[in-house]
Amino acid sequence: MYKLAFAYRQRWLKRVNWGNTKKGGSGSGSGRKRKHKRKHKRKHKRKHKRKRKRKRKRKRKRKRKRKRKRKRKRKRKRRRKNDHAKEKTGTTAGWALFRSIFRIR
Length: 105
Prior knowledge:
By secondary structure, the protein is mainly alpha-helical.
């Protein structure tokens, strides 16, 4: 019964959408094979779009991560440089330890 109803509906759709040659009727491009081809193309396009979106997202994420990493690296480097400057003036604990070992005043 279901199959029959389905067939009737399909036939009705073909008749109703007759004005739009791509959807129904018997105009060019109204064939089942071509319709399915279009459907698959659309599906593929959507899939591709999602894929590209994800790729861009990942790319941005990586870029941000690298940027942060570089920033941290630079900060650390700067801090270290500052530490050395302090050591030369004898203000850090490291310098005090060094002095206590070698008895330098």
